[in-house]
Design goal:
The structure is a homodimer. In chain A, helix 6 runs antiparallel to helix 12. In chain A, strands 3-2-1-4-11-10 form a 6-stranded mixed beta sheet, sandwiched between helices. Chain A has a 5-stranded mixed beta sheet with strand order 5-6-9-7-8, sandwiched between helices. By secondary structure, the first copy, chain A, is α/β, with parallel strands linked by helices. The first copy, chain A, folds into 2 domains: about 160 residues, Isopropylmalate Dehydrogenase; about 160 residues, Isopropylmalate Dehydrogenase (3-Layer(aba) Sandwich), CATH 3.40.718. Chain A is globular and about 60 Å long. Chain A is built from 12 helices and 11 strands.
Amino acid sequence: MLTIVVDAMGGDNAPACVVEGTIEALRESGNRFEILLIGQEDKVTPLLQQQDISDLNLRFMHAPEVVTMEDIPAIAVKTKQESSLVKGLKLCKAKEADAYVSAGNTGAQMAASLFVLGRLPGVLRPTIYAYFPRIGEGLTNIVDVGANVDCKPENLVQFAEMLTIYQRYAAQIETPTVGLLNIGEEEGKGPEFLKQTYRMLQEAAREQKINFIGNIEGHDILSGKATIVVCDGLVGNTILKFGESIPHFLGSLFKPSLEKLVLSGQLDKNAAALAGKAFKEIFEPFDVEKFGGVPFLGVDGISIVGHGRSSSRAIKNMIYMAEHMIEKRVNEHIAEVLS
Amino acid sequence: MLTIVVDAMGGDNAPACVVEGTIEALRESGNRFEILLIGQEDKVTPLLQQQDISDLNLRFMHAPEVVTMEDIPAIAVKTKQESSLVKGLKLCKAKEADAYVSAGNTGAQMAASLFVLGRLPGVLRPTIYAYFPRIGEGLTNIVDVGANVDCKPENLVQFAEMLTIYQRYAAQIETPTVGLLNIGEEEGKGPEFLKQTYRMLQEAAREQKINFIGNIEGHDILSGKATIVVCDGLVGNTILKFGESIPHFLGSLFKPSLEKLVLSGQLDKNAAALAGKAFKEIFEPFDVEKFGGVPFLGVDGISIVGHGRSSSRAIKNMIYMAEHMIEKRVNEHIAEVLS
């Protein structure tokens, strides 16, 4: 049976949310796996004692230290050896557990995963992606979104290869299309390093490692021209954060607009409330909780990175994601293609 | 009296829209300047003959060739010497005109402006910016948005300096804040070239050339943390195109959402139409026509670059923008600070 380590201390609503999501995952799945919840005893055990969990495959392990959102990744990894983060990943490294799930400090989790788990054979730099809604079915997956800046062409090519494998085995998309994010569609556009990347992506496509469709532009992200969008972490991170700020920004414009219509008597309150609800619903495709998080691709182990805002539902889905990634042998496939 | 050259052939709706915008500008301003409309005689003169323009400061000049949206910039500039683009800019270079305005092929206009007008003293690379709506008053101005990729730190610093001067003299914002777009707020974040840029922007701030507020992130663009956002053209171009695609994408989600409410009888048709109108209105701050276009900053002359979709209102506003830039002596100020 698989053992999944869940960081009880990670996320804005930890540990309550994490405990809840963990219990939900075990109940819903019928104890399909074992969960090792790790965190500060005085914070976590009172939450566990409130419920009858005697029927669940749930263990608890004390970790006295906590890596906070404010911690500087490289320093936290070295100085907080007794944190749930470092202890949890070490259990994976020692094969006492199969995966690590957290909604804590993303930078620290990436640094610790790299440091403790190491890289898969052939992987130059592990990477992290993010998904965007798009017109029609499916998602647009952007890689890298901040784990790597100063990327070389060979890094971008590996990001495309790793995410292709992940999409193929974990998301059942046989040949996901790969687009290179650039300032124009034509070959030969953009900075030098993207011109080189273009040629290397063509080469990877000839070897049937990826399904490269050429350069794409910023407006192609939401139109869904490619399933995988490759870029340097600076570009991807900026797009991700810009995208995340849109619902709030537009909401701050739409709400007063509806209120004005109500005040002027053109729209009744009930209709305005319905329109407001419909407006909120259009942002549901942006819902970060659906999948819960994303795997840190390329490390020699499974480390699922969640959003700080993760709810219990997000935690639950991250646990399922970890299980799925193990079952589909994603890491074995990555090592096979990249080494 | 100023003479402004207007490219009759530039834009998706040229020449009709351009002729209309030109006439509007002259009528509205009371012939405050002279306009030299330049383009293909057989296309433009029939439009002019339809109206009584005898009272206007309007001249026409024939240019047999046309640079299209499909033309490759560097090639068009060399091979289409008899185009409105090249002829118009040459008039500016020869001081027979004071500014050039076009909604045509942006890449070709930048290439031709650089080639024909040259750079202002001290300017390494001319640049182009774009404006975004933001929470509260004012706009967020992003520079560079595609004129320059493979930027060096000194290029980014000059972009910040030039746009500061433009905002100060043309938009009356005395000390616009400058933020460096990066993957994190803290100094020392991001790729090497941004770390160097950070230090050089600090230096420029000490010399009181700019008002540098440090690193900003993708979500700060719409929140309005900085008036000027500096980045490489690859990042800026991607954000610009991504942003432009948002209204259509969200509209494609909101419309069926409202229709569903009407069909289920929860919302009457009139209320849905009002909500739909309110929804459209929230995108008005994204209106590219308000200012019409942007100047190509750093060239030794005035070249206003418009969106291909420009309406007559956009053309009119670009003409005013050219006039304003001359009156405020923006180029003289740039040369003074940068040389």
